[in-house]
Write a structure and sequence with these properties.
16% strand, alpha+beta, single chain, Alpha-Beta Plaits, 249 residues, two-stranded antiparallel sheet, 7 strands
Amino acid sequence: MAFPSDNLLAAYWSAPIIDANIVIFLNLLGALSLGLLVGYERSYHGRAAGMRTYGLVCLASAALTVVVGYPELWFGGRGHGSYNPDVTRVIQGIVTGVGFLCSGVIIKEGFTISGLTTAASIWLVSTIGVIVGVGFYGAAILLAILSTMVMMWISKLENWLPLHHAISIALTYKHGFEPSEPSVYQAMRDCGYEIVKGSFAINSSDGKFLWSFVATSQQKNVDLSIPAISQKLTQFNGVESFNVAFARN
């Protein structure tokens, strides 16, 4: 059984490779720190993807990018500069791979979609790792700070600005009762909401109709209270049970 020679092992600890390892280590440490910074906001708000997920995504993106910058040192320098890696292909692979991860945190339940902000921020943190990997440290730090500020404070700005909020409603009618579409539209207007056109879905089971739709507030910044809306829904003619929730997350 042949063993590596001392010269071959020493090639992996030559001065250029040690210098490159130090630079890569600092890149990875910086990428991890920035990923944890962005991920803290998600952890603070109790999201499934938190600091560990963000830190690992940013770390992996930076690692895959930064090693492409040292092809002449690959395999202990035995490549003799014959490698000519395409950084753009590496970045494309990172973005595609992270896209699959992002799709796993998006959840659609009825008219409610959650996880979009988390998915977008995971994709963004991979970009931060790529930028660290190519050496634009100032831009990466600024991007991390800006993305954290957006996730922390833009939601407060949205609450301050005039908005038309949306809710999703599912009404189950009593057996044999046939609801009237104009009456439902008028009842929602009386509650201060307008049914969104094209959002109607009607199902029938065991002689009972299930009507589901999305409604938006007619007045900006209307006082949203799910319990208050629920009280009004109980007064709808023929309604046996219902479900009401915010339509967007």
